[in-house]
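check this one:
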Amino acid sequence: MVISLYLFFCWLLFGILATLAKKSSHRHLAFVFLFIDFVNTSIAYLLAEPIKFYQISKNPLLYVSFSLYQSLVIPAMIVILVHAYIHFTKTAFFLTSLVTLLAFEFIGRSLSLFTYDGMWHLAVLFGYRLFLLYLTILALKCFRRMCTY
């Protein structure tokens, strides 16, 4: 059931991205997705394996769900949030970002994709996701500047 839920999230988010591609530049969306995918996947497995910040489930279905979550769901969600940052008010963007990032973290924790001790781990992971979101916005601004010259 867990893997089907994360496959549903993937299809839903990529369906939303397909409609956003008509309104935004394909280069910008592709850059943001690939940037987030590379950074997030590398750091997620680095935090889990050598640093032991949290533990990834040993169950094969949960492990595949965790891989979908880190490699597809989080990058697609951040691309949608960056699109919202560009096209909507900053207050709406900030509140939407907080709610969606917290919701996905709680879903992942409650389905045992990853385990950690204490709520401070959740706060650190949430802060990391927000930092990643704002780092992506900065990288997109630099990418736009680079493409105009």
Notes: The first helix runs from residue 2 to 20. Helices lie at 2-20, 26-48, 60-87, 90-110, 119-148.
